[in-house]
Design a protein that fits this description.
mainly alpha, 12 helices, disordered N terminus
């Protein structure tokens, strides 16, 4: 076969994979919001809307599972089964979190409108997602390294992750105190918000990048895999309410997503980007001290 024609076919195939994975990622992450938007104009009750959203995820779970099985059984398409399985795992993780994410809040006995209660809820939701991803990966006897759950280049990871986490946390807390929140109240709430940041950092890095970077990178290369995951990650933040300049915020999120993906690929571990991510979250989470006032 003509090498030029072969290269063209490879380019088209890579383009189709990129398009499919981008759309699939956006559907998995935004499926709940899309379903809720559809039901909002139909006059359905809250319970009916929740049922519709959960039904939508159930369809995505069954669809991605069927794709995984079909691909695994097909000799020519078998290399793609882990990629389909990653979407299945992501859908399952989101569904499990939706059903069981309040376990830590219920166990804590805290009210949701307190810092400790909110932290317990976030911890429960994040633990449900992370736990589901790890359990399903282990059940298939897949290598945890596929998820970047390894020490990788541990020294580099610790330096990058710990230093960025420390710098951003200090900046965030300093900004919070400068806005009039009393230092003693910041100290009382600090453990709860550190917990939220660390849990969210690990969960989002595992869900958005750990699940997909290696699996997608095998077919389109590391750079394109990083770009696709960063786009999906950015799209997930389109509904945020705490910024007055959404386009600028989304551009920053996209750049951070690309940076965290690159760090994950270079260190071979989720550790550094998770800590870096948690540090950046402290810039935002610290402002939430005011929302909880002095309740703890």
């Amino acid at each position: 076969m003509d090498p030029t024609h072969e290269a063209g076919r490879a380019s088209v195939s890579r383009g189709l994979i990129l398009l499919f994975c981008t759309l699939a990622g956006l559907l998995v992450i935004s499926g709940g919001s899309i379903a809720m938007s559809i039901t909002s104009g139909l006059g359905l009750s809250t319970s009916q809307q929740v049922a519709f959203v959960r039904g939508s995820y159930a369809v995505m779970i069954l669809g991605s599972l069927a794709a995984t099985v079909v691909l695994h059984k097909n000799t020519h398409l078998r290399p793609f089964w882990r990629l389909a399985f990653a979407y299945f795992v992501a859908c399952c993780a989101i569904m499990v979190s939706d059903y069981t994410g309040d376990w830590a809040l219920n166990l804590s006995g805290q009210a949701l409108n307190t810092a400790k209660g909110f932290a317990a809820l976030k911890l429960g939701e994040d633990a449900a997602i992370v736990g589901t991803i790890i359990v399903l990966t282990l059940l298939t006897r897949d290598d945890p390294n596929e998820l970047f759950l390894s020490k990788g280049r541990l020294g580099l990871g610790l330096v990058v992750g710990a230093s960025s986490f420390l710098v951003f946390t200090v900046v965030g807390l300093s900004s919070t105190i400068a806005k009039g929140i009393q230092p003693d109240k910041v100290g009382e709430l600090l453990p709860a918000f550190l917990l939220i940041a660390l849990a969210d950092g690990l969960m989002e890095e595992l869900l958005f990048r750990g699940l997909f970077l290696r699996r997608l990178g095998r077919f389109v290369g590391d750079n394109w895999a990083n770009i696709v995951t960063a786009i999906v990650f950015t799209f997930m933040h389109m509904g945020v309410q705490f910024t007055a300049t959404l386009p600028v915020f989304l551009m920053i999120v996209l750049l951070l997503g690309l940076l965290w993906g690159w760090i994950m690929q270079k260190t071979g571990s989720v550790l550094a980007p998770a800590l870096f991510h948690a540090g950046v979250d402290m810039l935002i989470i610290a402002d939430s001290f005011a929302a909880f006032d002095i309740r703890n």
